Amino acid sequence: MSSESVYNLEMALQSSGVGQATPMGWVFFDRDVVVRDCNAAALSLLGLARDEFVGQSLTTLPWRAENEHGEPVTDDVDPVRRTLATGGTVFGTILGLSVRGRAFRWLSVNTYPAVVDDAVVGVLASYYDITELIQNRRNLEVTLAIIRIVTEIETEADYFAALCEALHTKGRYALVFITEGVGKSTTIHHASGMVEALTKAMADLSTSSKTGSGLTGTAARSGLIQVANETSLPILREWSTEMESLDLHSAIAIPFDAHDRRLVLNIFTNHEHEFDHWTVQELQAVSYEIEFDLSHVQSIQRLNAALTGTLRALTEMSELRDPYTAGHQRNVASLSVAIALEMGLGRDVAEAIGQAAEVHDIGKMSIPAEILTRPGRLNPLEFELMKKHSATGGDILSHSGLPSPIPEVAHQHHERLDGSGYPSGLRGEAITLPARIVAVADVVEAMAHHRPYRSSLGLDQALAEIARGAGSVYDAAVAAACERVFASGFNFADAPPAPPT
């Protein structure tokens, strides 16, 4: 096969069993990292016309690539160049691609060497859009960080400082600050990110001709959220020069009330079109949480209720994205509590396990909705993506500072005694007892109910599966307690919700 035929994308994809109609973007690069061919999905993902893309090299393509930390992608990290340099396949590189005038996208990139006569003549790269995954994960991290904040702070000033820092670090926003007042009377309560640039801009405000009719001033006066996804919009006219010089391209101003005062949460980012409808809704929800938290900042009782209530809200939010498993986490929580009580673990321990079970699948917020709700079995790539939910959920919950066993259960509920589970392949007692309990409850609930890819298998078959794996795959004591619970008349339909802590 000649190198020219290798660069024929349609021929290569058909020979590998992948058609041009695949939703995944495919691109061929030659040894000079010049784009030689691509499919329609790649152009759609990147927001480019064919004549803007084919024939261009990585160094001349009209995009800006960055990693998850917002840093430019260097040659030693770029997956196409790594495959050319090593001759090996590179899986799962996450790149953020920004094309001027188009929405910023997060892509998962795999690269494969194209070999002719034992020589690497180019690279076949696949691009899969994971923007929703990244956005959901970051929104969830922000929400959980705010939950933690309200359990730790004692003053409004401390709250504002922690809030801005959480949005900057967890949401990866370039600049976050809270203001009060309009125009030259504007004051800043706290800021995170590009603070020096903001301080200079606010110092210049006192002697400038700016009228306060920009994004922040309009939000303060109207009480309505203001969004600007391009610096050319009229509402940013007074600040467009400063934003361009700081490489800031999208902004949102969210008004909220603190007792009898109106304040504005301002967020700026380096990307155009950052604030889509979903993100605006999530940030608006943050503003409601801010108002609520500020009115109860010194109430310990309120803090405990917020933790339980927000965990339940997160559960319901995740289930709204996956209607086929609505109620799954609550069912698992109810059965987990019943098993724990049957094992004699005590009410406090059982309630803690139930609370952990309520959010054990929270990592599925990071899975694209079309994969969660697909009416059929997942392909290998999609299944590998789905399996990441347990590690993602465990990481997010542990970073939020939530108490044990909540993070451990989210991370370990797919582990198995014989080491056949995921994500870490833990064995035996390396898996915590709460996770072993939730693992059994999770399997029983899932098998006993309908799923997009199959009908319900029934409770009898679910319990038979647990009995078959008792002592090898599932904890024997947990399996026996589960059987006794159902023998005593437990029923998902009649079970009370997991008791609050």
Show the helix and strand layout.
Layout: H1 3-6, H2 9-15, E1 25-30, E2 35-38, H3 40-46, H4 50-53, E3 64-66, H5 79-86, E4 90-98, E5 105-116, E6 119-129, H6 131-150, H7 156-169, E7 175-180, E8 187-193, H8 195-205, H9 215-222, E9 226-228, H10 240-245, E10 250-258, E11 261-269, H11 277-294, H12 300-320, H13 328-342, H14 347-358, H15 369-372, H16 380-399, H17 406-412, H18 433-448, H19 459-469, H20 476-487
Antiparallel strand pairs: 1-2, 1-6, 3-4, 4-5, 5-6, 7-8, 7-11, 9-10, 10-11
Helix pairs in contact: 6-7, 6-11, 6-12, 6-16, 13-14, 13-18, 13-20, 14-17, 16-17, 17-18, 18-19, 19-20
Provide a compact summary of the structure:
With 501 residues, this protein is of the alpha+beta class.
How would you describe this protein?
With 501 residues, this protein is of the alpha+beta class. The chain folds into 3 domains: 3-129, PAS domain (Beta-Lactamase); 155-294, 2-Layer Sandwich (Beta-Lactamase), CATH 3.30.450; 305-487, Hypothetical protein af1432 (Orthogonal Bundle), CATH 1.10.3210. Helices cover 45% and strands 16% of the residues. It has helices spanning 3-6, 9-15, 40-46, 50-53, 79-86, 131-150, 156-169, 195-205, 215-222, 240-245, 277-294, 300-320, 328-342, 347-358, 369-372, 380-399, 406-412, 433-448, 459-469, 476-487, and strands at residues 25-30, 35-38, 64-66, 90-98, 105-116, 119-129, 175-180, 187-193, 226-228, 250-258, 261-269. The N and C termini lie far apart (66 Å).
